[in-house]
Amino acid sequence: MADADRDLHLLVQSVVDYSIFMLDPDGYIVSWNEGAQRINGYTAKEIIGSHFSVFFPPEDVASGKPEWELMTATSEGRVEDEGWRVRKDGTRFWANVIITPLFGETGELRGFGKVTRDRTQHRMAEHALRESEERFRLLVQSVVDYAIFMLDTEGHIVSWNAGAQRIKGYRADEIVGSHFSVFYPPEDVASGKPDRELEIAVVEGRLEDEGWRVRKDGTRFWANVIITALFDETGRLRGFGKVTRDLTERRMAERTLDERGRLLAHLVQAQEMERRRIAWDVHDDTIQSMVAVGMRLQLLASRLPPEHAATVERLDEAVSSAVQRLRGLTFRLRPPGLDGDGLAQAVDGYLAQAISGTGLTYTFTHDLLREPPPESAITIFRILQEALTNVRKHAMATSVSVSMNAVDHGVLVRVVDDGVGLAQPVERLAGRDHFGLLEMRERAETAGGWWSVSGRQGEGTTVMFWVPALMYGESGVS
Amino acid sequence: MTRLTVLIGDDEPMIREALSEVLAAEPDLDVVAIACDAEESIALAVRHEPAVAILDMRMPGGGAHAAREIRNRSPRTRIMAFSAYGDARSVEEMGRAGVTEYVLKGVPNRDIVAAVRRVAAGAA
Ligand SMILES: Nc1ncnc2c1ncn2[C@@H]1O[C@H](COP(=O)(O)OP(=O)(O)O)[C@@H](O)[C@H]1O
Ligand SMILES: [Mg+2]
């Protein structure tokens, strides 16, 4: 044997991390090394001459796996396998096995080289990793305080958790596959905000945002949103992770304490005072004078010859219809009831007076146990008034239902009519000479709430809005 | 024909004058007193004991207050409210003060006159 061969032989013999040995063409063991002894447990004397199938579990032997491995190695030039192998003491280890056929110079099969590694530790570690990943997945699944879910590269939802269901109201089977823009208010969708957020997340790696998001039932919550772009090892975008928290209550508590909230309350009430003053002026001065003029015109008409009387009577009619219109104006400026009876009663009274005689029927329900602060009550009343005016003017409805519910330390109001619905998206209905929709939204948003209108053509219209109703210093947490 | 005596209580001079002219034009109605607030209405009603007192809701001192006092101190006098406010609360308030006829300012003269006669007839 040449020196080099001898050295190699020594090396193989003394390697302990690999079991390296040779088989004859039929699979009988003809050599053995240190590693083989360590891993398989046999000494060279004990094992040489045995068939290598002793290392296999009985079920593998029964299925002919040892022979199959040799055949495959012969035909393919190599076989690699991972699986359980049996030690001398009967215990098992997870083996990575490579069998290589050895051919003589004339091409005849001389035997096989077999290298085996003990991968038990590695496999356990992998298993533990998979288990911990599974546990982590379960954790994410069951977290209820955060909506945690994944988007594909285009923004379609691919996973969902319990928190997402709680906060947004959709079950996984209802929402997976949808585009995440369904969570944004229509005005944000129209301005392209969802896609913009993904673009920023790709560029910056991450995006944080606070704003209104829409629940399944159309109500909104104030969300803190973090979108993280997920890249693989090659730097390719794989999708996005999205974590959303519902901060509605915290936001309210903060607002009731800050200066802006106080100033706003003051402004809303000052504006209302101004309206009341105008209403009184119109009522007590203008209307009374015109009523007196009308009375005198009628007297005059009764004293004139018929041909002149007719003219004066027409004059009186003109005055009288102007009085009617002014009455309508003062009613809108200052509906009776808002002064002292409380919001629900004011709404009740307003409905009775404003809807009666229009051919509409209405229902009104509410579950408010406590009177909202005056500026909230005024805001709610004014938006409601505008919504009802639109129902009368545009909807051609037969009935309208109004509800007010205490929700999230505020008041959620719904005005639902069964009329013609909206012919166009809101963005196109509002503006130019039409300010009603804009004003409603602005009032709600200025008060720290939200407003929405929906209604497909022919299906009636729903105006829904929410206005916070906390007293100053009151905490949003009940 | 017995003539009906009428008191007018209203703080708006143009209304006072127009109303008294409208009533004076009727052969069976006599305007015996014109007052411009609640206290004057009460005093003149006590002095003249008119068949009908036409009271403004919102004159100084309050129409409802005047109505209650006049009912106490001149029991033969029937009271009619003449008001610019037609809302349920105002009507209710006058109702509690014993006012049965509530006429909204702006109705035709003949309706005012008819209401005065109706109130007076209710007294018989
Ligand atoms: N309840 C409703 N039913 C049907 N159409 C409505 C309703 N509310 C609003 N609209 C439509 O929206 C438009 C804009 O409303 P708005 O901003 O209040 O202005 P305006 O009432 O002065 O037209 C209306 O002209 C009408 O076409
Ligand atoms: Mg409108």
Automatic annotation (TrEMBL), chain A:
It comes from the Bacteria. Residues 4-60, 132-188 form the PAS domain. This is PAS domain S-box-containing protein. One of its GO terms (cellular component) is membrane. Residues 73-131, 196-259 form the PAC domain. InterPro entries: HATPase_C_sf (IPR036890), HATPase_dom (IPR003594), PAC (IPR001610), PAS (IPR000014), PAS-assoc_C (IPR000700), PAS-like_dom_sf (IPR035965), Sensor_HK_TwoCompSys (IPR050482), Sig_transdc_His_kin_sub3_dim/P (IPR011712). Keywords: Kinase, Transferase, Two-component regulatory system. GO terms for molecular function: phosphorelay sensor kinase activity; protein dimerization activity. The keyword Nucleotide-binding does not apply. It holds the Pfam family PAS_9. The keyword Transferase applies. PROSITE patterns: PAC, PAS.
Automatic annotation (TrEMBL), chain B:
The modification 4-aspartylphosphate is found at D56. Residues 5-120 form the Response regulatory domain. The keyword ATP-binding does not apply. Keywords: DNA-binding, Phosphoprotein. The keyword DNA-binding applies. Pfam families: Response_reg. CDD domains: REC_NarL-like (cd17535). InterPro entries: CheY-like_superfamily (IPR011006), NreC/VraR/RcsB-like_REC (IPR058245), Sig_transdc_resp-reg_receiver (IPR001789), WalR-like (IPR039420). SUPFAM superfamilies: CheY-like (SSF52172). It comes from the Bacteria. This is DNA-binding NarL/FixJ family response regulator.
